Amino acid sequence: MKKGIKTESYYGNLCSLFYDIDKPLPNQEELDFYLSFANKNMNILEPMCGSGRFLVSFAEKGFRIDGFDISKEMLEKCVAKINKLNAKNNNILQCCGFKEFSSDKEYGFVFIPSGSFSLIINRDEIIENIKILERLTKQTGKILIELEINENIEKDIVSGNYSEKKVVKKNDIEIAFSQKITKLDKAENVIYSICKYELFENEKYVKEEEENFNIKYYQPIEFENYIKGTSLKIKNKYINYNKEKYVNKKTDKIIYELFKE
């Protein structure tokens, strides 16, 4: 490994900066979709909230929303954005994972957008985290989880569709992103990769960071197995933000709408 490269298991400083430049705001269609399940009389929770694209957008509109994320760098950006709002919602924002999140609230709406839940690749951890979401959700409350779907994962890996390069710029800052696939676990449908972020200021190289980036691509009915044994039931399965329902058609995502009996 080159001198000066930092290896991260979770989103680090340059990764957080890259995503804040690349995706500072949610897509309006996507935001409207999630807003349609919320009302201002309920407590809302966004696990894996990152730098707050959705959470801050909800807070700006006066919703009572809390969040947590395991990345210190991501959450710091979220907190800074919330503080600028001067909101009086007393948002709970914690740097932690699912098991460590602490709140005495019951949430009427819990959502994990943009495929973030697919970053959890361990089977036992997936089941455990679903049970935590169940516990945090009030009776009759709703949970929305957006999952990455790929029925032809091995074929796409071979064709190179998962390799990516991208450059983002803001003022005098430029970050070059690249991703290299290192392994495919066909049994668990998990792609292991390494992402590199290179920082340039005024066109001069400053530093770079590498981090592991691993993601699970679900088969279309795989998630059903993970909610067995819980009080959660599937109300709808959507394939886009227009609420088109999944009916055995090819799709790159499924958004599960769950409710707690």
Describe the secondary-structure layout.
Layout: E1 6-8, H1 13-22, H2 28-35, E2 43-47, H3 53-60, E3 64-69, H4 72-85, E4 93-95, E5 107-112, H5 123-136, E6 137-148, H6 153-159, E7 164-170, E8 173-185, E9 190-201, E10 204-216, H7 223-226, E11 232-238, E12 253-260
Parallel strand pairs: 1-10, 2-3, 2-5, 3-4, 5-6
Antiparallel strand pairs: 6-12, 7-8, 8-9, 9-10, 11-12
Helix pairs in contact: 3-4
Short key terms for the protein model shown above:
2 domains, 7-stranded mixed sheet, 261 residues, 25% helix, alpha/beta, disordered N terminus, 36% strand, globular, 7 helices, Rossmann fold, single chain, 12 strands, N-terminal domain of TfIIb
Offer a concise description of the structure.
By secondary structure, the protein is α/β, with parallel strands linked by helices. It is 25% helix and 36% strand.
Number of strand elements: 12
**Radius of gyration over all CA atoms, rounded:** 19 Å
Strand residues, percent: 35-45%
Our count of helices gives 7
Helix content: 10-25%
Rough shape? Answer: globular
Q: What characterizes the major β-sheet?
A: 7 strands, mixed
* Widest beta sheet: strand line-up: 4-3-2-5-6-12-11
Classify the oligomer: single chain
CATH class of the largest domain: Alpha Beta
Poorly predicted residue ranges: 1-10
Derived structural class: alpha/beta
Rounded mean pLDDT is 89
Distance between the termini: 51 Å
What's the SSE pattern?
EHHEHEHEEHEHEEEEHEE
What is the CATH topology assignment of the largest domain? Rossmann fold
Number of individual domains = 2
CATH architecture of the largest domain: 3-Layer(aba) Sandwich
Fourth-level CATH superfamily of the largest domain: Vaccinia Virus protein VP39
